[in-house]
Design goal:
alpha/beta, Rossmann fold, pyruvate-formate lyase- activating enzyme, 3 domains, five-stranded mixed β-barrel, 18 strands, 33% helix, 21% strand, binds iron/sulfur cluster
Length: 433
């Protein structure tokens, strides 16, 4: 390996915000002569950006750290992210982990690692080299962090403890980053954060009152083809935001991911969610009124402490309301330090497993129905990735429907139009027009 061409391998567990931050951390290290290792390729430096939102995320994070240490005894191992904030001692005492980086220090990685790993950072003149833009290695859609942290206090959630209070980025900074991504050939940008629905900017001009205002200014001041909003809390899906969808029809992706968590008003109160199931449903109806072909996804937690069969039945009823097109089903797990972790009446693992299976099966049916509705329509699609087995390209439509593209499709970041001819549970197929 040429002296300066060192290999960097990155692993991200968790959400798009974490994926964005991984790309930014990598971009800070390219000026030091690092290049990305391909999957499975040995590297000199491993960055593992962890998640702690569920116990499963914890165990995935631990597994990836253990494997990196075991398979690369010569390499330097850096562990970052939410699990570091949740369990700092576990990480710092972990033999084989060289450096731990909590969320608040991720943007300093280009300063921290040369000090902590001097043998690996020989060319210190990189210090004054500008940080490269995140290149979203191998991706054709880009994520963009607009805020971090959350001011809500849902009783089951560890995120406020590991991500802190809500901090928004300035609209000027955000628009500059959109322009940089456009120069890199991206046509779709996904806005991400922890609780982006509470976005606002009052510190300087342009003052922005909410997420609707931010979307409007991005679409007004750039020629971005597709703007997607990642997960958004139900009470922040405002009429003003839906009006922006009407105003910029075709440029705002017709996809809404709106966490519900439970359909039981009793459980929603104990979860400290700021809405009841009727208000949730009315929001979904407003979305379908404003964007008739929108695809709506919902997060649901099964097995929250005290959840009875009747509570679960209420959740299932909302999921079957005809307004939801797919589900992300999470099995409840105690998160250290949360209010819910101290609650009695824990639901048994078998019951949780059974309820998860019911909703996971239901989600497959809902997706198949949503896919079926696409037949005969033409969708705007961006190729996402090349499936190694079968050699097909997969695309993601603006309404988040998965599209199987022709074998000989060249790929790329351009928006293509696909006339949908057939559908199945997992995807739709069509002709590139
Ligand atoms: S809104 Fe609730 S669930 Fe979402 S990050 Fe904030 S506290 Fe967690």
């Amino acid at each position: 390996m040429e002296k300066d061409r060192k290999k960097l391998s990155v692993h991200t567990i968790g959400c798009r915000l974490n994926q964005y931050e991984t790309e930014k951390m990598a971009a800070e290290l390219y000026p030091f002569g690092f290049t990305r290792a391909e999957d499975g390729e040995p590297a000199d430096l491993y960055i593992i950006n962890t998640c702690t939102v569920t116990h499963r995320a914890d165990s995935s994070s631990r597994n990836i750290i253990s494997r990196a240490i075991r398979e690369n005894p010569e390499a330097s191992i850096v562990v970052a992210g939410c699990y570091v904030d949740a369990a700092p001692d576990l990480m710092t005492d972990w033999e084989g982990v060289d450096v731990v980086i909590p969320n608040a220090q991720k943007s300093e990685i280009g300063k921290i690692l040369p000090d902590r790993l001097p043998d690996l950072f020989t060319n210190t003149d990189a210090d004054d080299r500008p940080e490269g833009p995140a290149d979203f290695h191998d991706h054709n859609r880009a994520w963009l962090k607009i805020s971090d942290g959350c001011n809500q206090r849902c009783s089951f959630c560890v995120l406020p403890a590991v991500r802190g209070r809500l901090v928004n980025r300035s609209p000027g900074e955000i628009i500059e980053e959109v322009k940089t991504l456009l120069e890199q050939g991206f046509n779709e940008v996904v806005l991400t954060g922890v609780n982006i629905g509470h976005y606002r900017w009052r510190e300087s001009e342009p003052r922005i009152g909410n997420l609707a205002g931010l979307c409007r200014i991005i679409l007004d001041q750039t020629n971005l083809a597709k703007l997607r909003i990642s997960s958004i809390e139900p009470q922040t899906v405002t009429d003003e935001l839906l009006e922006v969808y009407r105003q910029f029809r075709g440029r705002l992706c017709r996809h809404f991911h709106i966490p519900m968590q439970s359909g039981s008003p009793r459980i929603l109160r104990i979860m400290r969610r700021p809405y009841d199931q009727m208000r949730y449903l009315r929001r979904l109806e407003s979305v379908k009124d404003a964007v008739p072909e929108a695809i709506i996804g919902a997060d649901v937690i099964v097995g929250f402490p005290g959840e009875t069969f009747e509570d679960f039945a209420e959740t299932r009823e909302i999921c079957e309301s005809g307004l939801i097109d797919y589900l992300h089903v999470f099995s409840y797990s105690d998160r250290p330090g949360t209010h819910a972790a101290a609650l009695p009446e824990k639901v048994g693992p078998d019951v949780i497993k059974a309820r998860n299976a019911i909703l996971t099966e239901l989600s497959k049916e809902l997706r198949a129905q949503a896919n079926g509705r696409q037949v005969g329509r033409t969708l705007d699609v961006i190729a996402e990735g090349h499936q190694t087995d079968g050699g097909f390209y997969w695309g993601v439509a603006d309404n988040y429907i998965k599209v199987k593209l022709p074998r000989d499709f060249p790929g790329g970041r351009q928006v293509i139009k696909v006339a949908i001819k057939s559908a199945c549970e997992k995807y739709v197929e069509g002709v590139v027009s």
